Amino acid sequence: MSLAGKTILVTGSTDGLGKLVAASLAGDGARVLLHGRDQAKGEAVLARMKASSRNPDLEFHRADLTSLAQVRGLAKAVLGGHDHLDALINNAGIALFADDTRRLSADGHELHFQVNYLAPFLLTELLAPTLRASAPARIVNVSSLGQAAIDFDDVMIERDYSPMRGYCQSKLAQVMNTIDLGEALKSAGVTAAALHPGTYMNTNMVIGAGIKPLTPVEEGVEATRRLAVSPDVEGQSGLFYNQQIPQRANAQAHDAHARRRLRDLSLRLCGLGAD
Predict the structure, then answer these.
(1) CA 166 → CA 52, 65, 191, distances in Å?
(2) What average pLDDT score do residues 5-19 get?
(3) In degrees rounded to 5, what are phi and psi of residue 75?
(4) 98: how many CB neighbours lie within 10 A of its CB?
(5) At what angle do helices 163-185 and 119-133 cross, to 10 degrees?
(6) At CA 235, angle to CA 13 and CA 198, rounded to 5?
(7) Which one-letter DSSP state was computed for residue 148?
(8) 117, 167, 200, 241: which one is catalytic?
(9) Sequence-separated (6 or more) residues with CB below 8 Å from residue 198
(10) How does DSSP classify residue 117?
(11) Largest Cα–Cα distance of the chain, in whole Å?
């Protein structure tokens, strides 16, 4: 499948699932915008991917998603170099299962909530005008079957913190935002989808957490890539997939009032105007 002429941003693409998704897209000729938080690692991955894919039309952008200022910088860099964006794959994420310490971002937010949800929320909002102008375009949020309802009285989990709760809450927030994006952008020709790419794939994040891998990462690559570029899902929006099968998410994702509360909170935390 030729993707020549397509421009696709893949966050968290210097390792794991994101790196393999980016390599697959690059191999088919897409202009892939890689992202990571380590400049040296990113440049090394970029060089190897250019060589292996024989695709010189790749670039790397550095940003640490624990800082919303750096997320804004990433969006500015992407928009400054490209007036067209066919797909945004929000893949970057953390899972601090091996550490029970409640950690905060540079902006004072619970770390899973910011890196897994709030940073991609902001990035998507900032890139949305370009995605609309590039329609048909797609947004893919790499989420999880691990989902936990958000306690709006304690979103940053100051009480009864556990890393699993932080992770699962952030992943549900991604799905809730995906449903909102599906409703808000479909008429503009931009579709949004979220997926669980695989259960405990054999990535460094899973292995580093001391978890035994269960799913080959290649299955996650196929499922993620399908939502980003395959004609099979053209026009389908606001859905959550377990790999390639649509699945109903946690009940709170289908609560319009809860989604409104989350969006209002997210806009405020990101310093964006209410819509």
Answers:
(1) 37, 16, 27
(2) 97
(3) -60, -40
(4) 10
(5) 20
(6) 40
(7) -
(8) 167
(9) 214, 215, 216, 217, 219, 220, 223, 243
(10) I
(11) 51
Is residue 246 predicted with pLDDT exceeding 70?
Answer: yes
Which residue ranges make up each domain of the chain?
A: 7-269
CATH 3.40.50.300, domain 7-269, yes or no: no
Q: How many residues does the chain have?
A: 275
Q: pLDDT band at 155, cuts 50/70/90?
A: very high
Would you state the structure tokens that stand for residue 98, as one six-digit string?
Answer: 């091996």
The Cα 74–Cα 123 span in angstroms is 8
Q: Is residue 132 very low, low, confident or very high in pLDDT (cuts 50, 70, 90)?
A: very high
Number of H helices, E strands in the chain: 9, 8
Retrieve residue 68's tokens. 């919303």
- The radius of gyration computed from the CA coordinates of the chain, to the nearest angstrom, equals 17
Q: Which residue has the tokens 């894919």?
A: 53
Q: How many CA within 13 A on the CB side of residue 15?
A: 15
Q: Range with the lowest mean pLDDT among 158-162, 214-218, 270-274? A: 214-218
Nearest to 238 by CA among 190, 195, 192, 197: 192
pTM for this model (two decimals): 0.96
Secondary structure, 3-state, 164-189: HHHHHHHHHHHHHHHHHHHHHHHHHC
- pLDDT tens-digit series, residues 72-90: 999 999 999 999 999 999 9
Pairing relationship of beta strands 245-246 and 7-10 according to DSSP bridges: unpaired
Determine contact, residues 150/262, Cβ cutoff 8 Å.
Answer: yes
241 catalytic per annotation: no
Pairing of strands 245-246, 239-242: antiparallel
